TrEMBL record:
This is FtsQ-type POTRA domain-containing protein. Its main location: membrane. Keywords: Cell cycle, Cell division, Cell membrane, Membrane, Transmembrane, Transmembrane helix. Gene3D superfamilies: membrane protein fhac (3.10.20.310). InterPro entries: FtsQ (IPR026579), POTRA (IPR034746), POTRA_FtsQ_type (IPR013685). PROSITE patterns: POTRA (PS51779).
Length: 322
């Protein structure tokens, strides 16, 4: 049998150590040249990369940003009472002499959404040169004031209004005429401060807003007739009209109380009289004071049988004819 011959090269430790330690100036020189070549290659690649980036940037700058075709030519702003083109340019920092590429739609949109008087905003660029801005302005629903803050109620410049969601904001000048007819909710101490762009956080506000909503449902002219709403005592709310009528309500049962108020007002109007104050918390015995008269009270009996005149209407009629 033949055995497979193998050749094994065995290097002694002395030979290996000798090969490692042998260095000549020629070997060092060639190693230096090799390192220089690699460094030059890297430097050339970096230079080419920088040149390519610079070239692309210059191409974009010359071909797009500085191209007159893409200059900002028009701003299409949704008609609204809160912000006009001049204020938009100032607030968003828009360069009207710049390019459409200089207008950062996302940043402008974020800036507009931060304005308390706007409920929504959308910005987009339409090439070659139009910036489209769509906004939705908040509609004043009520004036609001607090004794905790030194803000005069109904102040056209510093006064605060709320929309139907209860968000606080300053009334835009274009809506001052409309806002003059809105009621004022006067809040006492307590709750959080009124901050533009934030919702009202106050226990009295929720009660008074619900009372006003009932008034709008039961009295057709409530939006222009109601002047002031406030919580006069811990257990009662007060409504003051523009003609001076003061009506006292409880914390609940507002539908029934508002209907009683409407009936009293209708009877007084028919007889050309005016109610100075009325206490609506009692269900049957309602104290009423006529303008220039003395306080009186009427008794509201149980509903009358069919065919008999309504006792509440009769009692109101008797009271107003005294």
């Amino acid at each position: 049998m033949f055995k497979k011959r193998t050749t094994r090269v065995r290097h002694s430790k002395e030979l290996t150590r000798l090969q490692v330690n042998v260095l000549s100036p020629r070997i060092v020189w060639f190693g230096f040249l090799k390192a220089c070549r690699q460094t030059v290659k890297v430097a050339v690649l970096v230079t080419l990369g920088v040149a390519a980036v610079w070239g692309i940037r210059e191409l974009i700058q010359k071909g797009l940003v500085e191209n007159k075709e893409f200059q900002l030519q028009a701003i299409e702003l949704t008609p609204n009472p809160a912000i006009d083109e001049r204020r938009l340019i100032k607030v968003a920092g828009i360069d009207i002499n710049g390019s459409l590429f200089d207008c950062d739609a996302g940043k402008i949109e974020e800036t507009l959404r931060a304005l308390p008087e706007l409920s929504a905003a959308s910005v987009r660029r339409e090439f070659p040169g139009t910036l489209v801005v769509e906004v939705i302005a908040r509609e004043p629903y009520l004036w609001v004031a607090s004794t905790n803050q030194e803000v005069q109620p109904r102040d056209p410049e510093k006064g605060l209004v709320v929309d139907r969601q209860g968000i606080v904001f300053h009334c835009p000048p274009a809506l001052h005429a409309k806002a003059e007819l809105l009621p004022l909710i006067q809040l006492s101490e307590g709750g959080e401060p009124l901050v533009p762009g934030k919702p009202v956080v106050h226990p009295e506000y929720d009660r008074l807003r619900r009372l006003y909503q009932v008034a709008c449902r039961e009295i057709p002219v409530a939006e222009s007739w109601v002047y002031l709403l406030r919580q006069s005592r811990e257990w009662s709310l007060e409504l003051v009209s523009r003609d001076g009528t003061e009506a006292c309500f409880g914390l609940g049962d507002h539908e029934r109380q508002m209907k009683d108020l409407k009936s009293a007002l209708d009877h007084a109007r028919e007889r050309e009289q005016q109610i100075a104050s009325i206490e609506l918390i009692p269900e049957r015995n309602i104290p009423v004071k006529l303008r220039g008269g003395v306080p009186r009270a009427i008794l509201i009996d149980e509903p009358a049988p069919a065919g008999v005149p309504d006792r509440r209407a009769r009692d109101l009629n008797d009271l107003l004819n005294r």
